[in-house]
Design goal:
The chain is of the alpha+beta class. The protein has one domain: Creatine Amidinohydrolase. Helix 1 packs antiparallel against helix 2. The longest helix is centred in the N-terminal third of the chain and has 24 residues.
Length: 259
């Protein structure tokens, strides 16, 4: 046994449904993220859509977070708080991190887009970060270990000349938003458990175009930014370990694996 919470097939189906809702609403918000739209507008839309889908927000109220959605712009790495004062501009890089709860089980996903065309650097950063997520997902196989995921992400990011943010990591997910084990996006000296069927991991590389160090806003105590002001991107999917390889939750059937 793994020592971690391995989900039943019924639980995985519930989490698949919740992630399907999250990913659908993320796609809708990405299309609505146009110049002049405020990040608070996106948050209000996401909250209304959760109600329409009959699921609950995962983030609002979590450790005091005030919104259903994290909106991180340009040098903001993660946990950006939506605001009516923050209106999107042409070329902005925008990360949307979003979660939901269905029948007691959590879903969590994130995407990064450009508002309008965006710079060549921003588009390359987004693509490398997304690719690193897929490289990590390929390692979500019974018998592999957490550091197989970490190594795949780190190798792809650093080979492209970018930096992996180290202060924030992926995590197990299920009846709680954050469960063990942690899933670093870099090889560390921490625990390196073996993966067993039924374990669900939220894999979420956060990547900086410059140096990896971040700082948390002392005023809102949530928004994390790159210390050097460089752009940052964030992608996340919830993935279950199965006997047949990775099951990317919320993926259109019959697709269960990325490879």
């Amino acid at each position: 046994m793994s020592g971690y919470d391995c989900k039943s097939e019924t639980a995985l189906q519930t989490m698949d449904h919740a992630n399907r809702v999250v990913r659908k609403i993320l796609d809708e918000m990405a299309r609505r993220a146009t110049p002049g739209v405020s990040t608070a507008d996106l948050d209000a839309y996401a909250e209304s859509r959760l109600a329409e889908e009959g699921v609950q927000p995962a983030f609002k109220g979590y450790r005091g977070f005030p919104a259903v959605l994290c909106t991180s712009v340009n040098d903001e790495v993660v946990h950006g708080i939506p605001s009516r004062k923050k209106r999107l501009r042409e070329g902005d890089l925008l990360s949307l991190d979003f979660g939901a709860v269905a029948d007691g089980f959590y879903a969590d996903a994130a995407v990064t887009i450009t508002v309008g065309k965006g710079s060549d650097e921003a588009r390359r950063l987004i693509e490398i970060t997304r690719e690193s997520l897929l490289r990590g997902i390929e390692q979500v196989r019974a018998g592999n270990r957490i550091q197989d995921i970490s190594r795949a992400v780190q190798t792809h990011v650093e080979s492209a000349g970018f930096s992996v943010v180290r202060e924030f990591v992926g995590h197990g997910i299920g009846r709680s938003l954050h469960e063990d084990p942690q899933v670093p996006n870099f090889v560390s000296g921490g625990p390196n458990p073996k993966l067993h069927p039924g374990l669900v991991l939220a894999i979420e590389p956060m990547v900086s175009a410059g140096r990896p160090e971040v700082q948390v806003d002392p005023n809102d105590r949530w928004t994390a930014r790159t210390q050097d002001g460089s752009l940052s991107a964030h992608w996340e999917l919830s993935v279950a370990v199965t006997e047949n390889g990775p099951w990317v939750l919320g993926e259109p059937e019959p697709m269960r694996a990325v490879s």
